[in-house]
TrEMBL record:
GO molecular function: 3-oxoacyl-[acyl-carrier-protein] reductase (NADPH) activity
Keyword field contains Acyltransferase: no
Species name: Gordonia prachuapensis
Protein name (database record): 3-oxoacyl-ACP reductase FabG
Keyword annotations: Oxidoreductase
InterPro entries linked: KR_dom (IPR057326), NAD(P)-bd_dom_sf (IPR036291), Sc_DH/Rdtase_CS (IPR020904), SDR_fam (IPR002347)
Oxidoreductase keyword on record: yes
Domain Ketoreductase residues, every copy: 9-192
Source organism superkingdom: Bacteria
Matches recorded under NCBIfam families: PRK05653.1-3 (NF004198), PRK07231.1 (NF005559), PRK12826.1-2 (NF009466)
EC number(s) reported in the record: 1.1.1.100
Pfam family name, one: adh_short_C2
Enzyme class, spelled out: oxidoreductase
Gene: fabG
Amino acid sequence: MTEPLLKDKTAVITGAAQGIGFAIAQLFIDEGARVVVADIDATAAGSAADKLGGSAIARGVRCDVTNGDDVDAVLGAAAESFGPVDVMVNNAGITRDATMRTMTEEQFDQVINVHLKGTWNGTRKAAAIMRDRKQGAIVNLSSLSGKVGMVGQTNYSAAKAGIVGLTKAAAKEVAHHGVRVNAIQPGLIRTAMTEAMPQKAWDQKMSEIPMHRAGEVAEIASVALFLASDLSSYMTGTVLEVTGGRFM
């Protein structure tokens, strides 16, 4: 019988109290990891950790990813509870959709800060620990919006495109230290957020997908597992589209 893919690994996942982040945390635990659920909502993070199995395998920690000290604290909590971080998943994100004409500077800054600065904080802080140990995998969540641009998302599309550039640059910096950095670009994934969109918008997006269905959070989690594990040991700086073929 083969061993779990992440046996005895310590993983930190931001924005993991719900949605894609929670699905990743669940699958990582199923594959032998111990997980720190980092989320801006401390109560939700704790509740998620309880659902995942409690303190022996999961810990919830409040974290504002735009604050470097918060990210340091989460990585410290991981080391204290389970050991130095082996896998970092930068998943935390928000949306503040509006057309460029109506978008405020605050809405632009909020999205750039959470997605792009947050991913930069998570990548650089985790990489600093991993390079000393000559091993580690970092997985950054971009989006199809960072490839094609979406109306009403000049902030989000810019941030998600920036994550691709950040991933590639960081991958080059730390590859010789044994640290891998890769990204995922999800397309339309069925979550509470996407299911709340107007039916017309949903139908338009569905019409663009050759597979004629939305993706499920588990389908993003399985790709994150691949990038976090030794299955992808010769991959770094890559961007994997998980879109059902949308905008090939």
